[in-house]
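Hey, I'm writing a tutorial for new members on how sequence and structure tokens pair up, and I'd like a real worked example in the thread rather than a made-up one. If someone can provide the structure for the chain below, I'll link this post from the tutorial.
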Amino acid sequence: MSRSLALLQLVSPALPVGAFSYSEGLEQQQQQGALPDQQALEAWLRAELGHGAVRIDTAALAPLRLALQQWRDQSSHGDGDGEARQRLFDLDRWLLAQREAPAMRAQQRQMGRSLQQLLADLGHPLPSPCGDTMEPALAYPAAFAWAGLVWELGPLELAEGYLYSWVANQLSAAVRLLPLGPSRAQLLQRRLLPLIAAQAAALQDQDPRQLWSSGVGASMAQLLHAELYSRLFRS
């Protein structure tokens, strides 16, 4: 399968990872009147792409992919519990710890398990130590990096795909929450493509542990989402 087709499959809304069931704070913001229209939504997405936690996840894809590759190589020589595996899970857990809201940590775990299971079903289980029949669980960025490795996607393609799919999922939620039709959502996705490309290029070579997130509003919205009286999306 070509790399471009593999990337299309990975970012497809049909990918069965459950991303459609989360709004990542959008629903709480909409109910509080903070996202009244398309302009406010665009400002929110640009702020998250420029300063939010999704940047840290994106920057982590390259080191996650490298650790997975080295773990796979070590496993083929009988060293499934090597240093690369430890680096992988250290970074995986560190990324989870960056998410203040329990709902976001649960989302990352659930989507990671779903993507990991899909890849195993497609013939790409994680490397396992000798005698270990249980696959260790990865959160979503690490599972996404594993998909990039086994489908031979490069670091830039992987970063672009991660950011593109994140925006697409946010717009899918917004269509159900705001007076925003599918055509306007596609126009907005199109307007965000230059920012997605620029951020992917800038983040692919950065150390995620040296980055910071100023998405305080998003974190508060994610924390408060579980307190809504009624909601469409999972907490």
